[in-house]
Design goal:
about 260 residues; alpha/beta; five-stranded parallel β-sheet; 7 strands
Length: about 260
């Protein structure tokens, strides 16, 4: 018996995973007449079975995007064994995409099941170093512009100065790929003659290379709550770990106290 086409996408690169999901669904059901999207946190075996066994409309393929993977993401009403059994019974013409923003360990049953059934597995993790520079350059090309390599590095140095060149498991700060993609779109829209330059990046990309800690603390302890909240939003959206923000803000009163002693 032919099996449905199942693809499992995992990793921390939310942008690439979202792009792949849309590409797979577009190829199967461009008009979305026969596409269902189910969050794994609220999914049940019955709901998934209905989505993958109902014939498609208008000659398109039946498609399902399951956001999350049981056994990896929170799924109180859906065990992996149950989902696996449902997918094996899916219509042969059905296209199923499972996506998670976590990197699945190689010893998880999800990956073993995928190998058994011949399902496709793709890893989309955060790139670092030269791979990150290439990723940004390709995003600019997709937006119809080119970028000076120096401008590409400057973007990364401004947004993630201590993070982008290599992965450090001891550094809790992660790279927000959606933020980088948005920054690319902003610069591409403002680029003159289809070229992103160093001058453009210096004018439009905020500098997060260490200045934020001082500005956030200055606004917080300077009695400017509106400015502090805006700066806090900027810091968190740039990928700064919340626990580091708490540490840097909470450290300031200790400095004041020490100065008075």
């Amino acid at each position: 018996r032919s099996l449905a086409a199942v693809t499992i996408l995992h990793g921390r690169n939310a942008v690439d995973i979202e792009d792949r999901v849309q590409a797979i669904l577009n190829a199967a059901d461009p008009q979305r007449f026969s596409t269902d999207v189910i969050d794994v946190e609220s999914a049940t075996p019955e709901a998934v079975r209905a989505a993958v066994t109902t014939p498609a409309f208008f000659g398109s393929a039946r498609a399902l995007h399951l956001r999350g993977v049981p056994g990896v993401d929170k799924a109180p009403s859906l065990e992996w064994d149950d989902l696996e059994a449902v997918l094996v019974d899916a219509l042969p013409e059905c296209v199923v995409v499972l996506s998670t923003l976590q990197k699945i360990p190689s010893n998880r049953r999800v990956l073993k099941s995928a190998k058994t059934h011949g399902w496709q597995v793709e890893t989309h993790d955060i790139p670092y170093g030269r791979d990150m520079e290439r990723w940004l350059a390709e995003r600019f090309e997709r937006n119809g512009v080119s970028a000076d390599p120096r401008a590409t590095r400057l973007i990364l140095d401004r947004l993630y100065p201590n993070t982008w060149q290599r992965e450090d498991r001891w550094n809790p700060q992660t790279i927000n790929m959606r933020l980088l993609a948005t920054e690319v779109e902003k610069l591409a829209a403002a680029a003159a003659r289809g070229k992103v330059t160093v001058d453009l990046v210096e004018a439009l990309t905020p500098d997060r290379s260490g200045v934020t800690a001082f500005k956030l603390n200055d606004d917080t302890y300077g009695g400017r709550p509106d400015e502090a909240l805006r700066e806090l939003d900027n810091v968190l959206s740039s990928g700064e770990a919340p626990e580091r923000v708490i540490g840097q803000v909470g450290y300031q009163p200790l400095v004041f106290l020490a100065a008075r002693l």
